[in-house]
Each structure stands twice: as structure tokens, then as C-alpha cells.
Write a structure and sequence with these properties.
Layout (H helix, E strand, L loop, with lengths): L1 H9 L12 E4 L5 E6 L5 E8 L13 H7 L10 H10 L3 E6 L4 E8 L2 H16 L5 H18 L3 H14 L12 H4 L4 H11 L6 E6 L3 H12 L23 E5 L5 E9 L8 H13 L5 H8 L7 E5 L7 E9 L3 H18 L3 H18 L3 H13 L6 H10 L3 H11 L6 E5 L7
Parallel strand pairs: 2-6, 7-11
Antiparallel strand pairs: 1-2, 3-5, 3-6, 4-5, 8-10, 8-11, 9-10
Helix pairs in contact: 2-8, 4-9, 10-13, 10-16, 11-12
Length: 437
């Protein structure tokens, strides 16, 4: 009955009020803590992130960061993976994780009552600070990763995404496939994982985010508990990621694949997290391809010509400039036409900028939809973790809608001119074997 009650509470939304009081401090061990106190529901959400994403894979061992993160809860502190899973389930807690090129992290959702919170946090501390990386479990997980990589080799969307990353980022670490490649993963050992863990999971680089039914004093104690057993700072590797070089010429890659549709991805390095132009690019991209049926790409490629079911564009800010991407699928027989329409739409957008009506519509939709982005503790936790990891202002959420509202058409045009270069785009086409120009 307690577990059922807990699961019901997990589904209950928390209405976020304006002016979130984000508290921030640093522990003596160097860990950064971001906390929002909220007693509306008897729940606690916690995340711990480290600079241990795929961009930190060592040469010759692409996929090591992902495999290390994958095995954190597959045996720790003398407990097996089944015992860890059962331990969380017994108190109605939910363990999760996130992983990308920049960061690797774990999340926990638990009831705030001591009889639930205490064992859940103790178990999380073990997962974070005492992973065993047992050789037999490492081999088991390697087999699963390799199987997934083999399956991806037959999926046109995966083929296109991997080729796109290579075309945009070249030899930069952001080009690494998160799961690595088969030949490198197959050679990894338990010692490799232990070494990566010790050098990338120190308290000095940790960012702890908490929101829920605890006091600041308790939040501080939790943060200290979760980081006390982490590897010492003197073992930590550099957290620097090299600058992303811009594309100096267009790149076109066509990959034949037997399918009725072609996968098309276009793009180039975009913008870093926290860049001054971010909000202008964000609002402008809503008009270009981020606003669904409100966007020009959807109107030009789907509505007017019926060349695709869906087309999109987005910026993915990272520690260094992440990708700007335009993507769609289209029938193989109209691949060339669809690609030309996308190119022309982008060129027109760059030349003309946004209209007053488009700007108003974009702002109204972004601002109007913002409350749904922070209507639960879990959603706010994601923002807290992002704010902490990328060193954004603690009032980022409070200022979000105002920053959107302040964007002008001139700022959008200038921001795109500074960031997007249509004559130097990387284009990947998977599926259509005809020559693309």
C-alpha cells in the first residue's frame, strides 16, 4: 500500500510559482549545490551530474564514458544489480540517469518521509561512490551495447545521425558516438571503467540539484552524503573540452540505403550554452523550424508541397557549440526537390528575417507554454541541473520569459548571421542513391 501511495504521489504535478527561490552553495569538497525548497508534496527529487560525457572518451576507447555510466547501478557497495533495483523499489523510489556528450548523471525520486528517504539516499550514495564494475557484469553489458550498435547499423536514422555528427564535428570529441563503436567497446575491461570513473566522478566536478520537501540544512547534509565517498580531486582529469572548429566549406555525404524514404540532415556547429545570442536564436528558430505547424519549414516543405510529414530545426547548446540541425524524411523520388526547398527556405529566412506577425506568434507561444515546462518538481530539477552544470545565472528561470519577450527582429537576423552559414552546411542523405547537388 505504501508503494502504491508513493507511485500515485509521483504522478501528481507540482504547480510552479513565479520567482523560484534557487539557493546555491559550494561544499568544502568543491561540489556545487542548487536547491529549491518546496513542501507542497512529501517528495524529494535529486540529481548528481559529473563532467563525464562521451566527449571525454579517451583515444581508442570511444564508448568508455557511456559504459562507465551504464554500470554505476549494476553492482555497488557489495550489492548486486538486482539488490540495488529491489532496494529502490522497496521504498517506492525511482532511480534514473542522463548521459550526453558533456555530462553523466544519476537522478533519484523518493518520498521525503525518513523511512523512505533515508534508505533511498544511502543506496544512491553507494551507486555513486562504490560501483564495483565486476568483470562478468562488464562483459554482459558490453554484449548488450555491441548488440545495440549492430542493430543501429541497419537503421537509416542512426546511420544518418552518426554520419551527421562526423560531418559537422570531424575529429572533435563531439563527433564521438555515445555508445562508441564495436571494435573499441569489445576491448574494454573492468580496469578501464575503474580508471575512467576515478578520473571523472570526483566531488570537485559534481553538481547536485535538489528540489522538494526538505530544509536547506537537510539539503546540505544530503549533498555531503552523496559526495563524501567520491574519488579524490587529485585523480580528476581535466574538464576542458576543446573549441569546436567551424566548417570552412560545404560537406555533402550521400549514403545509399534500400528504403522508400530518404533521411536528410543538414547543419553545422551552432551555439554554446549561455551564449549571448541564445534567446534570439531560440525565438528565431521557432519561426524557422522549431514551431511545428507555425514554422516556415513546415509550411514550405509539407503544407505547400507535401514533400514530408514532418520537418524541424533546432539548436543544441553544449559546453562548446553543439549542433544546429535541420531534419526531415521524404520519399526517395523527391529527395532532390525537398532538399532544394529546405535550402531555399533557410536562405530566405536568413535574408528576410522574421515578420512582425511571426515574431509575435513565436513569443506568445513560447511564453504561453513556459509554465508547462516548470509545472512539476522533476521538470524544475532538470533546469536546476542544467543551470548548475553550465554555470548559468540562478535567476535563469525567473528571467526566461522576459528574455524571450525582449528579443527583436533585428536581433534574430543578426544572431543568425553570426551563427548560421548556409554556404557552409553539412548535408547527409541516407536512402536515396541518386546524385544530390
Amino acid at each position: 500500500m505504501r508503494l502504491l501511495t508513493g507511485l500515485i504521489l509521483f504522478l501528481a504535478p507540482v504547480l510552479a510559482c513565479a520567482g523560484l527561490p534557487v539557493q546555491h552553495w559550494q561544499l568544502a569538497n568543491g561540489a556545487q549545490v542548487y536547491f529549491v525548497e518546496n513542501h507542497d508534496l512529501p517528495m524529494l527529487d535529486v540529481s548528481v551530474d559529473f563532467p563525464g560525457g562521451s566527449a571525454y572518451d579517451p583515444a581508442g576507447k570511444f564508448g568508455l564514458a557511456s559504459l562507465t555510466h551504464r554500470l554505476l547501478d549494476q553492482g555497488a557497495g557489495g550489492l548486486s544489480d538486482d539488490e540495488i533495483a529491489s532496494g529502490f523499489a522497496d521504498v517506492g523510489a525511482q532511480l534514473g540517469g542522463r548521459f550526453d556528450a558533456d555530462r553523466a548523471g544519476m537522478t533519484l525520486r523518493t518520498l521525503s518521509a525518513a523511512e523512505d528517504q533515508t534508505p533511498a539516499l544511502a543506496l544512491l550514495a553507494k551507486v555513486l561512490s562504490q560501483p564495483t564494475f565486476a568483470p562478468n557484469i562488464v562483459e554482459r553489458e558490453k554484449t548488450r551495447v555491441i548488440s545495440a550498435l549492430k542493430e543501429a547499423e541497419g537503421q537509416p536514422a542512426d546511420i544518418a545521425e552518426h554520419a551527421f555528427e562526423k560531418a559537422v564535428f570531424g575529429t572533435h570529441p563531439y563527433a564521438h558516438r555515445e555508445n562508441g563503436n564495436i571494435s573499441m567497446v569489445s576491448t574494454m575491461s573492468s580496469a578501464d571503467l575503474q580508471n575512467f570513473y576515478r578520473s571523472h566522478y570526483s566531488a570537485h566536478g559534481a553538481v547536485i540539484a535538489l528540489i522538494g520537501d526538505v530544509t536547506r540544512a537537510r539539503a546540505d547534509a544530503i549533498a555531503q552524503q552523496l559526495t563524501a565517498g567520491l574519488p579524490p580531486a587529485n585523480l580528476a582529469a581535466s574538464t576542458d573540452i576543446p573549441p569546436v572548429p567551424p566548417l570552412t566549406a560545404p560537406v555533402l555525404l550521400t549514403i545509399p540505403f534500400p528504403a522508400q524514404q530518404s533521411q536528410i540532415l543538414m547543419g553545422q556547429p551552432g551555439v554554446a550554452r549561455g551564449a549571448p545570442d541564445y534567446f534570439a536564436l531560440y525565438v528565431g528558430n521557432y519561426v524557422l523550424g522549431g514551431g511545428g505547424f507555425d514554422s516556415r519549414l513546415m509550411n514550405d516543405v509539407r503544407q505547400k508541397r507535401g514533400l514530408t510529414y514532418s520537418v524541424y530545426s533546432y539548436f543544441m547548446p553544449m559546453k562548446q557549440p553543439g549542433p544546429f540541425q535541420i531534419g526531415l524524411k521524404t520519399r526517395t523520388g523527391v529527395t532532390e526537390e525537398a532538399l532544394q526547398v529546405v535550402r531555399q527556405t533557410l536562405a530566405d529566412f536568413m535574408a528576410q528575417g522574421v515578420t512582425p506577425a511571426e515574431l509575435t506568434q513565436a513569443k506568445d507561444n513560447i511564453i504561453g507554454g513556459f509554465p508547462l515546462r516548470i509545472d512539476s518538481n522533476q521538470k524544475i530539477l532538470e533546469y536546476l541541473a542544467m543551470i548548475g552544470f553550465y554555470h548559468l545565472p540562478t535567476d535563469y528561470l525567473d528571467q526566461f520569459t522576459q528574455r524571450v519577450n525582449d528579443v527583436t527582429a533585428d536581433q534574430i537576423k543578426q544572431a543568425f548571421a553570426n551563427t548560421v552559414y548556409p554556404d557552409k552546411m553539412a548535408t547527409v542523405v541516407v536512402g536515396d542513391a541518386v546524385a544530390i547537388k
